[in-house]
């Protein structure tokens, strides 16, 4: 789960991390009120969206007067910001952070993420922080410094010191920098984060070390321990299909393409996405219907995949174990029926290729051959099925 910058800063502040004074605002009036309250020489108006790259996209404005705060707040609220992280469709700005301007002397980069290869947390630092960090990583990888943290002992002070020296902090601020690292690590562990990214971490002209931007991601599996974090969820930032699927207890991730797939088991679901890609398809989603499906759940999965006209074809790839192929087959029939009723049409509007194997496979196939469902065809193998659905979707695109 992601949260906004202003929320991330509130969480970090509760761990004693230094962040600028700031107040969130949902309207232009609130923005001006906030700026009055902050009463700083320079006020920064920052668009709050779940994506970085706002600075370059015009989402971070420096205001020198209340009039300018008003002007920028009016411009940003409701605007669709397109950054290199949002995709071409962009994200609509619904909230602002009104923040005290910092007197930046130098911008650094600091982050913590899980490293799967070493099963450790890696702290990543660079003295070339700010809006060009991706370029630094690509062109000057030696400027990116890593420190691996064993979670059974935590971040040791000597590691933080080593990082601070390698990042070339000047002697006057080394202690402040290492203290910031230790607190950020505490926050990472304390809140079950999967990422804490500070870009930029700045040293000011007054030799303060401040987190000027903050991006916290949380491990969804740990959220039950953090009701305070769950409360920060901004559903308007999340994919409506993913929210719908989550409510129905389906493991669904929208991948943006047009060949949908419905699979049981996460491993098979990933393999299915791969094989669709192999045959030149553009997977619409990852969907693991799990081990305890009912016809109703299958029908809902179809509705989610078809919603908004996203799926141009569906590949059902089931290896029945705890899941039974006859239940899946009934689910497909039910889906056709529900969709027909809801849309006043004659069933599922796109081609569906079904590959069934495993528990009750004969029964499942029989259900679909005895009472054929419009647009549904059977495939004997996973490879054949994947190839077939990709071909059908391409053909439909050509004819469209
Ligand atoms: P993003 O990463 O989405 O571009 P940032 O919060 O990092 O957004 O802001 C972009 C840049 O704007 C920063 O690198 C910094 O130079 C400047 N900036 C952000 N917040 C402040 C602030 N409070 N005071 C002064 N400059 C700021
Ligand atoms: Mg940033």
Automatic annotation (TrEMBL):
Cross-referenced PROSITE patterns, in alphabetical order? ATP_GRASP, SUCCINYL_COA_LIG_3
Cofactors that this protein relies on: Mg(2+)
SUPFAM superfamilies given in the database record: Glutathione synthetase ATP-binding domain-like (SSF56059), Succinyl-CoA synthetase domains (SSF52210)
Molecular function per GO:
ATP binding; magnesium ion binding; succinate-CoA ligase (ADP-forming) activity
EC number(s) reported in the record:
6.2.1.5
Residues annotated to bind ATP? 46, 53-55, 99, 102, 107
Pathway involvement of the protein, from the record: Carbohydrate metabolism; tricarboxylic acid cycle; succinate from succinyl-CoA (ligase route): step 1/1
| Any Gene Ontology biological process | tricarboxylic acid cycle
Q: Which PANTHER family match?
A: SUCCINATE--COA LIGASE [GDP-FORMING] SUBUNIT BETA, MITOCHONDRIAL, SUCCINYL-COA SYNTHETASE BETA CHAIN
The UniProt subunit note reads as follows: Heterotetramer of two alpha and two beta subunits.
Q: What is this protein called?
A: Succinate--CoA ligase [ADP-forming] subunit beta
Q: Which organism is it from?
A: Anaerovibrio slackiae
């Amino acid at each position: 789960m992601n949260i906004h910058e202003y929320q991330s800063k509130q969480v970090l502040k509760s761990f004693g991390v230094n962040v600028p004074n700031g107040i969130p605002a949902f309207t232009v009036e609130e923005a001006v009120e906030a700026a009055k309250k902050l009463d700083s020489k320079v006020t920064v108006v920052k668009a709050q969206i779940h994506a970085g790259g706002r600075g370059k996209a015009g989402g971070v404005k420096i205001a020198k007067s209340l009039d300018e705060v008003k002007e920028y707040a009016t411009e940003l609220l409701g605007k669709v910001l397109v950054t290199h992280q949002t995709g071409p469709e962009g994200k609509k700005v619904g909230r602002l952070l009104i923040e005290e301007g910092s007197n930046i002397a130098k911008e650094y980069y600091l982050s913590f993420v899980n490293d799967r290869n070493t099963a450790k947390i890696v702290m990543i630092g660079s003295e070339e922080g700010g809006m060009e960090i991706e370029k630094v990583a690509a062109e000057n990888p030696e400027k990116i410094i890593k420190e691996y943290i064993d979670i059974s002992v935590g971040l040791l002070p000597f590691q933080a010191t080593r990082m601070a020296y390698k990042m070339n902090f000047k002697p006057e601020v080394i202690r402040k920098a290492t203290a910031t690292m230790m607190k950020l690590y505490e926050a990472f562990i304390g809140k079950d984060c999967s990422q804490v990214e500070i870009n930029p971490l700045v040293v000011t002209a007054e030799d303060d070390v401040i987190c000027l931007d903050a991006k916290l991601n949380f491990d969804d599996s740990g959220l039950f321990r953090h009701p305070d974090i769950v409360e920060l969820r901004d559903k308007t930032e999340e994919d409506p299909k993913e929210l719908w699927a989550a409510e129905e207890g389906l493991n669904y991730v929208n991948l943006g393409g047009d060949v949908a797939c419905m699979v049981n088991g996460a491993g098979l679901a990933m393999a299915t996405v791969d094989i669709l890609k192999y045959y030149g398809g553009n997977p619409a989603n990852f969907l693991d219907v799990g081990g305890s499906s009912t016809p109703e759940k299958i029908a809902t999965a179809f509705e989610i995949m078809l919603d908004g006209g996203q799926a141009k074809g569906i590949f059902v790839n089931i290896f029945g174990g705890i899941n039974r192929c006859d239940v899946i087959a009934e689910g497909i029939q039910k889906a056709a029926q529900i969709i027909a009723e809801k849309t006043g049409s004659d069933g599922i509007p796109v081609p569906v290729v079904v590959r069934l194997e495993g528990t009750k496979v004969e029964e499942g196939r029989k259900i679909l051959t005895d009472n054929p469902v419009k647009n549904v065809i059977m495939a004997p193998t996973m490879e054949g099925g994947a190839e077939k659905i990709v071909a059908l979707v391409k053909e439909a695109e050509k004819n469209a």
